[in-house]
Write a structure and sequence with these properties.
- The chain is α+β, with helices and mostly antiparallel strands.
- The chain contains nine helices and eight strands.
- The strands form two sheets. It has a five-stranded antiparallel β-sheet, sandwiched between helices.
- A hairpin with a 3-residue loop joins β1 and β2.
- The protein is globular and about 55 Å long.
- The termini are close together.
């Protein structure tokens, strides 16, 4: 089964086979469930365990190992602060129910041809079941929202913290403080995440790694590959159709 990624604004659903991911961490929440045999999840602070389901906090360093069984990953870019508030209120991740697991297995079938809205609905459903009551929160500050809306409307523009601060009608220094408070990330890290999403979408559409790297704002294929491995835990070439 080739790796298949479905990216949406705040979520990503990945269907692939288990392998040694190497040590890495994600900004997003991550849940994973075995579609066949189990896998080994190793957390930097908690050791390695065999599992059929696991959920990871934002920026939790981990490593996934397994044979060659099918696995589904769900990423939810809710932001560290919303996650922390949810956990402090007693929130706990939940394992997928049998009917959701069956739907994920069906989607992983090589012959499956589900339309994008159906896949997005499935990802949203898993998100709601895994992290009940946790929802993405827009920045309360309208000035930050203007800047983020501009970025989302044109993610490939050469944004910097200064140009985004101008959109928000804030000084660059004040903007950086408010941005980090709202998103949990420095502006540079947030922009990198958005460029990686754009590159991934282009790779899945069949573009070569070098072309996708340049289009998404990376200096070259090597720059994309280094960033991709560090943040997503895989080589970008693994996402090319037919791999």
């Amino acid at each position: 089964m080739p790796t298949r990624l479905h990216f949406f604004r705040e979520r990503a659903l990945v269907l692939t086979r288990t392998a040694d991911s190497g040590w890495h961490a994600h900004r997003a929440l991550q849940a994973m469930v075995a579609l066949d045999d189990g896998f080994v999840v190793e957390r930097e602070k908690a050791g390695a365990v065999e599992a059929r389901f696991a959920a990871l906090a934002p920026m939790e360093r981990h490593r996934i190992r397994g044979g060659d069984a099918r696995i589904a990953y769900l990423f939810f870019d809710v932001g560290p602060r919303a996650w922390q508030a949810w956990r402090e209120a007693g929130g706990e991740p939940r394992e997928p129910q049998a009917d959701l697991l069956a739907a994920l297995r069906a989607l992983a079938d090589p012959e499956a041809g589900a339309p994008n809205p159906a896949v997005e609905a499935l990802a949203a459903r898993w998100c709601a079941e895994c992290w009940p009551g946790l929802a993405s929160q827009a920045p309360a500050d309208a000035r930050l929202k203007r800047a983020l809306d501009a970025l989302e409307a044109d993610p490939l523009a050469p944004w910097t913290h200064r140009s985004l601060a101008e959109r928000a009608h804030l000084s660059p220094s004040r903007f950086q403080v408010l941005f980090r408070d709202a998103t949990g990330l420095p502006v540079r890290n947030y922009l990198l995440w958005r460029r990686l999403l754009e590159a991934t979408a282009r790779l899945q559409a069949g573009e070569a790694v070098t072309a996708a790297a340049h289009a998404a704002g990376f200096a070259d294929a090597a720059h994309l590959s280094r960033s991709f491995r560090r943040i997503i835990g895989a080589a970008p070439s693994s996402l090319l159709p037919g791999r």
